[in-house]
Amino acid sequence: MSDNRSPYRFVLPLVVFAAAIFTVTYLARVAFEDTGGSLQVDMPVIPEAGEFLQNERNTIAIFQKASPAVVFVYNIQKQFDPRSWSVSEVSQGSGSGFLWDRSGHIVTNYHVVAGASRIAVTLIDGKTYEAEKIGEEPSKDLAVLKIDLVGTNVTPLGEVIADSSDVIVGQKSIAIGNPFGLDHTLTVGTISALGRSMASIVKDVTIRDMIQTDAAINPGNSGGPLLDSHGRLIGMNTLILRNSTGIGFAVPSNTISRIVGQIIEFGEPVRSGIGVTIASDSLMRRFGIQGQGIMLKEVHSGSPADAAGLRGVGISRNGRVVLGDVIRSIEGETIRTVDDLYHAFDERSAGDEVEIVFYRDGKLYTVKIVLARI
């Protein structure tokens, strides 16, 4: 039996399909103008009311506005091959980051770029830049990079930052990053808890006031932004609880803003203190002090602690060990660990006066000391 159907019967469906693909591609396309390091993107197209639910429209609008500021960060390290006696560059991992300002500063996690001999950053337009590390704060798992960006119409997330102290449990949270290398991935959830303390890379120091979220965070999300329902930065996605689902943690935006500002201005975090060296855990255990306060091993000459008369570990005239002063509290906050001491000073600035209670020779003493930059 002959087939009388037209040989062009597939043409119309193919034309319709091609038109649909062209439309989707056009709307999703990110345009790059080759202006010597200028990042330009198409303005977002927000769906009309009625096409999507209000919550969907909110999520879409936030992603379209914020995602161009999210970047891919590559950690490249040199590797020696003993067989060929040659050195080559190998990618040791990747993560996320976000544009902080229009000068090309980028914020990411310290662990994303730790040990890198070279750092590369790819923007949403697909262009890759060599990045310079401006500074870092390992105790907050934070690093600041810089690329040669001469202009952009992208809104840096440092310009839309929220006060993280206003975040409340139950509000919407949006994470954007590059999990498993899948660039510009969006996940949505809620703020699950506040004020979490998690171990940092620095021994005996925690990252405090972290934001817990159930928005999916996976390897590669590290360094990416956590946003609120207004598209404002409330945190930087940093870690997940091992072997867990839906338990991720972000460094709060107030910490990010304070540290990033210091690094951009000074090239390093600005720390305040009283000018002392702390005794080791083993020494404090030896004298039964561990958990009861922090003993001073050394008081630096000319420091605020020295001016206030504090003393470190010493040797008496008859050769016996003289214990250093043991700090018990700062401004009414009990000090039991190195972490307590670190955060008591971290929350204050040089020039602030603090009341310190310390133990010496069986008695408690109180002294007021003005913190100095250290």
TrEMBL record:
GO MF entries: serine-type endopeptidase activity
Pfam families in the record: PDZ_2, Trypsin_2
PROSITE patterns per UniProt: PDZ
BP GO annotations: proteolysis
Domain PDZ: start-end pairs: 263-362
Keyword vocabulary terms for this entry: Hydrolase, Protease
Domain of life: Bacteria
Family: Belongs to the peptidase S1C family.
Protein name: Trypsin-like peptidase domain-containing protein
UniProt organism field: Pelagicoccus mobilis
